[in-house]
Amino acid sequence: MLELEYDVIVAGGGPGGIAAAVSSARLGARTLLIERYGFLGGAGTAMMVNPWMPYWASTVDGKEVQVIFGVLQELIEGMTKLGMYGHPKQRAAFDPEALKVVAERLCLEAGVELLYHTFLGGVKMDETGSGIRSVIVANKAGLTELRARMFVDCTGDADLAGFAGADVEKGRSVDSLMQPMTLNFRMANVDTDRMPDKLEITRRFLEAKARKEIDCPREDMLWFYANQPGVIHFNTTRIILKDATCPWQLTEAEIEGRRQVQELVVFLQKHVEGFEEAYLQTTAPQIGVRESRRVVGDYMLTAEELLAACKFDDCIARGTYPVDIHNPNGEGTVIQHLEPGRWYEIPFRCLVPKKINNLLVGGRPISATHEAHSAIRIQPIAMAIGQAAGAAAALCARGNMTPRQADIRSVQEALTGQGAQLGLSV
């Protein structure tokens, strides 16, 4: 079995993984980013989750305060230069193809080593059982053992942490049920000028459900404008009672998602003005996963802390997205907003799993309750968390220390040096 060694290995090339790898490499660490697909972007490309949810706080007087910068801002600027970011009616819409290109360029320019078409398959622990010695990956070369001083789990599902034996949780505390999955899809050749408003489309959707034309356990039609003329993006399918960490259930979810898409396409063409000549342009290569494993770390973030806009001395990321819980059982969505103009902070301790000494979590599976996770799971926040995990991993690898030994001030200074804004005087 071939063996290679790095300072930092980042598992997963989604939003968190892109930011983690770039951040780590810029701090001088030899960094490898492994990704199961032949491109980066994860939720924004493979799952086709679009647009990015707000990375700004809206004030009572209508002003906006951007709170997430860093790698996110670099991606925005890169896609803007290509003319593939934003829409007159959808500020944060982006072209997935642009995200693939800009993210890849950002990684390569930072010195990140990329390894595509590579699937994380296992972990080897050291003799103490508290440190990861290597990860086992599968690709066209067979099984390969990759060693590193530090590892960053950006798989979205906490696969690396789970394989390493870290404590993890799933779903809500009452029954462990997780938020539903969604297969995103796009309709093209839509006459957008003739489309009814969202409330009217939802009313017709509910009527079609009542007539048994649609079997989808969702209470509304959620859609957004895409970057391309005449293209509408739908985030409407809802696949419930499935575990994204079980390959059998994940397969069932993909099949169910496509079944729902076909019903929705027929409904739109038949019952909604502007869609008479429209057609299904694409479905996402992979179903969108809102929630799976969550790592139990040195600190567990709660929804109460987010809604109270709590601040932490070890802040490494900020966010404004509300608590947004899609009912694991079916219809219904609970949304709880912050007060206007406020944002919350995410402490570094949430990135540090219990029991494992050389692993950090970047992205949505950090240590948080089911309710808090529903807010911090979005792509811009995942990028901010990932950038922090990558910076800390590089500093730990270079300084031969564990994350618990790291000087949080040094991590914060590294982040602000890379364009992040933490609201700190560093």
Automatic annotation (TrEMBL):
Keywords: 4Fe-4S, Iron, Iron-sulfur, Metal-binding, Oxidoreductase. SUPFAM superfamilies: FAD/NAD(P)-binding domain (SSF51905). Gene3D superfamilies: FAD/NAD(P)-binding domain (3.50.50.60). The keyword Signal does not apply. The keyword NAD does not apply. Pfam families: FAD_oxidored (PF12831). InterPro entries: FAD/NAD-bd_sf, HdrA-like. This is FAD-dependent oxidoreductase. It comes from Paenibacillus allorhizoplanae.
